[in-house]
Amino acid sequence: MKESKFKVEKSILIPIILFAIISIISIFSTRNLLTDDLQNLYLKQILWYALGFVIAYLMMTVGNKFLYNSAYILYLIGILLLVLVLFFGKDINNARCWFVIPYIGSFQPSEFMKVFLIITLARMISDYHEKKKTDEIIDEFKFLLKVLVIVGIPSILTFIEPDTGAVLIYFIITIVMLFIGGFRARWFIIALSTIAIFASIFLSIYFFNQDLFINLFGTSFFYRMDRILNWSNASGMQLTNGITAIGSGGLLGHGFNHIPIYFPEMQTDFIFAVFASNFGFVGAILLIGLITYFDISIVSLANKSHDMCDKLVIGGIVAVLLFQQIHNISMTIGLLPIMGITLPFISYGGSSLLSYMILVGMMFNVSNENLRFKN
Fold it and tell me: Considering the entire predicted model, what is its pTM?
């Protein structure tokens, strides 16, 4: 019997299959409370997952080396899409983040920019370590300036949309990957100190001279900041009803397809509240346990890898997943501000899911290489 050319660790594959099942049944449970035009979202999610697994398989056929070699092309494609969406994107909820494709749905470039940024930074950092001949601070400083430009361009474009959550994710990806890349600790201290100084000035203007703040940054950004900074005092319907749905689920929940109350974005940002309402405290703990097991499996995969680029990519993936998982669940229960950050692999969304399945394909490649190397 011919041995399969691809070998994938079950500790990564099985959780993704379970995520797919959880996602589909959770989205299906929102049907009774959504408008008629959103009744078929669970069917679309099935199609997105099917397409996602095809993409993951294609990623395995082309290999990670191809993606690393195409890193700068992918980066430029991502920048072009971010520019085009500002001119031709559709305004949804006061943000221009999406292209709308008739009969298919919306397409969000910032989701794929996360992937392109991870690949590009992995290539840059790996090339830097391979080519550097000295350990001089000035060379490292010049390289970090290049990284700042590479990350800064998509950050500015995404911020204009506006999509503050994606900008935060870009910077978290960068910090984690630079840390894994072994750069001097002083740069992180300088960066954090600089951020703290500018943040202090920024917040001082916001709190003590709001007219100046509006003149400098505009009314729209002022209200965005007001919503973020006053989240703990907010009592909007989305958070209040979401917490009510979770709390009313009790230990075992209301049961599949039984959500007692409506709250906005229940199929996307607040999908955790849907699942917790259906399956209660026990279900929520099991889901968090599955997410934790999946993340630990990815970290373990990085430890087994022998390729610098692969280690960096997995570090970026873990950074994205952990940030979105922690923030999404925390904002759903009122611990962090609501910022439109979805729960990876669970929330509805074609762009989000397909971008993650590209990363899954890359992880499968690393797993495949590790298992074949071991054998």
Answer: 0.89
Q: What count of residues does the chain have? A: 375
**What backbone torsions phi and psi does residue 122 show, to the nearest 5 degrees?**
-60, -45
Distances (CA, A) of 182 to 122, 126, 135, 146: 13, 11, 12, 17
Residues of the chain with confidence (pLDDT) below 50: 1-2
Question: How big is the CA angle at 363 (ends 357 and 372), to the nearest 5 degrees?
Answer: 135
CA distance 338 to 239: 8
64-74, pLDDT tens digit by residue? 999 999 999 99
Position 228 scores a pLDDT of: 67
Distance of CA 370 to the CA centre of its chain: 26
Distance linking the first and last C-alpha atoms of the chain:
17
Cα of 242 vs its chain's centroid, Å: 22
Which one-letter DSSP state was computed for residue 254? S
Dump pLDDT digits (tens) for 146-197.
999 999 999 999 988 888 889 999 999 999 999 998 888 888 888 888 888 9
> For residues 101 and 58, what is the distance between their CA atoms, to the nearest angstrom?
23
Please write down the long-range contacts of 303-309, taking CB distance under 8 Å and 24 or more positions apart.
304/370, 305/366, 305/369, 305/370, 306/369, 306/370, 306/373, 307/64, 307/366, 307/369, 308/125, 308/126, 308/129, 309/64, 309/68, 309/122, 309/123, 309/126
d(CA 117, CA 174) in angstroms, rounded, equals: 8
Identify any residues that bridge with 105 across adjacent strands, giving them in sequence order. Answer: 101
- Give dist(CA 196, CA 199) in Å, integer: 5
Cα–Cα distance between 347 and 329 in angstroms, integer? 11
Do the bridges between strand 90-92 and strand 95-101 make them parallel or antiparallel, or are there none, so unpaired?
antiparallel
Category of 230 on φ-ψ map: left (φ > 0), alpha (ψ -120 to 50) or beta? alpha
